[in-house]
Design goal:
globular; 2 domains; binds 3-methyl-2-oxobutanoic acid; TIM Barrel; 11 helices; alpha/beta; 279 residues
């Protein structure tokens, strides 16, 4: 779809909590939308106030919050409080919680038990987990229990040890398997699908083939939505970052400059001034 059908309100015009069906409707009218990761209450408030329709409390918290080398290490116990914190900052955005590596793969019932914790204790409205056609049964089991599921195919960062890094997926003949994964996850009942680090042509092909919203990260401009880790987008993570990361701010520079000025003011006695003192 190229032109936007204006028969239903845009996502930004919706003044109640966003539901999965709103994202499906956005796709139907050709509206493209942004999604960000989020891990704490203050950024959650800012992103929500600026009408980002969906926030992912991603397992990328392993790296950008907890300082691990990959997403493999994070546990449910480490991610769950971050979901609860984001929940407290959001009135409108759909909150999606990632299922950590080791918390869902064994069986659909393991995935269901973990997902329930993220909804009941964390307050998430949906969960996401990594996996292609082999995880369609997991998706179906959760959806049957009333839990909205976002799939994640293409590059699966939790498989970094098997992949030996973060290589682009779906090039050449491998595209067919990614397309089959996409269909399997959508047919199992997922309400949306993240596709990571695939050629732009394949990203477009998957988005065109599915009726559910396809959210790209390094999958080109042809997907229905785009997601990024906010610290990448705003220049807090150190270089090098993946090719698909744009820098819309230099927060590391801004914060560094500000705390240096304050440190100098402390050193030379300019801070605290009279206006910062109690009489
Ligand atoms: O955890 C994460 O950050 C993700 C990406 C798709 C954004 O899964």
């Amino acid at each position: 779809m190229t032109a936007m059908d204006s028969s239903t309100p845009t996502l930004a015009a919706i003044n109640r909590p966003i539901r999965p069906a709103d994202l499906t409707a956005a796709k139907a009218r050709g509206e493209r939308w942004p999604m960000l990761t989020c891990y704490d209450v203050l950024t959650a408030r800012v992103f929500d106030a600026h009408r980002i329709p969906a926030l992912l409390v991603g397992d990328s918290a392993a790296m950008v919050v907890h300082g691990h080398q990959s997403t493999v290490a994070i546990t449910v116990g480490e991610l769950l409080p971050l979901v609860a914190a984001v929940r407290r900052g959001v009135q409108r955005a759909l909150i999606v919680a990632d299922l950590p590596f080791g918390s869902y793969e064994d069986s659909p019932s393991q995935a269901l038990a973990t997902a329930k914790r993220f909804l009941k204790v964390g307050g998430a409205a949906a969960v996401k987990f990594e996996g292609g056609a082999g995880f369609a049964g997991h998706v179906h089991h959760l959806v049957s229990a009333g839990i909205p599921v976002m799939g994640h195919i293409g590059l699966l960062p939790q498989s970094v040890n098997a992949l030996g890094g973060y290589p682009v997926q779906g090039r050449g003949t491998a595209a067919a398997a990614i397309l089959a994964d996409a269909h399997a996850i959508a047919d199992a009942g997922a309400f949306a699908l993240v596709i990571e680090a695939v050629p732009a042509d394949l990203g477009r092909q998957v988005a065109t083939a599915l009726g559910i919203p396809v959210i790209g990260i390094g999958a080109g401009p042809g997907t229905d939505a785009q997601i990024l880790v906010w610290q990448d987008l705003l220049g807090l993570t150190p270089a090098p970052t993946p090719r698909f990361v744009p820098r819309y701010a230099d927060l590391a520079g801004t914060i560094g400059e500000a705390i240096s000025r304050w440190a100098n003011d402390v050193a030379d006695g300019t801070y605290p001034g009279i206006e910062h003192c109690y009489s």
